[in-house]
Specification:
Blueprint: H1 3-9, E1 15-20, E2 24-29, E3 39-49, E4 54-58, E5 62-65, E6 69-74, H2 77-90, E7 92-95
Parallel strand pairs: 4-7
Antiparallel strand pairs: 1-2, 1-6, 2-3, 3-4, 3-5
């Protein structure tokens, strides 16, 4: 995914879903004023690692390389919470 395209579609402080090779990632965007960047900084991140059957949480945030993002979608707060709850119900969570 191209950096400019990605950053043009996201706003600071909104929930997003990223599709990556490792799994699905949900977090709150923390975008600085200067764009484009080669990484996306997210706060309060959840990763649904399908191959390992677990949900990891990174409460302090995580930087995601733009090169690792296959696709993404902007979420509402309700959609984000529903997805995280569904992941946690279906898998044993680990807290990071």
């Amino acid at each position: 995914m191209k950096e400019v395209e990605l950053f043009e579609q996201m706003k600071h402080g909104e929930p997003v879903l990223f599709v990556t090779a490792i799994g699905y990632i949900i977090g709150i965007t923390d975008i600085p004023d200067e764009i484009p960047h080669s990484v996306v900084k997210l706060k309060d991140v959840y990763i649904n690692c399908v191959s390992a059957s677990r949900v990891n949480r990174f409460s302090k945030g995580l930087n995601i390389s733009v090169d690792q993002i296959i696709g993404f979608n902007v979420l509402t707060e309700e959609e984000m919470n529903r997805m995280i709850t569904n992941w946690q119900v279906s898998m044993a969570p680990t807290i990071g």
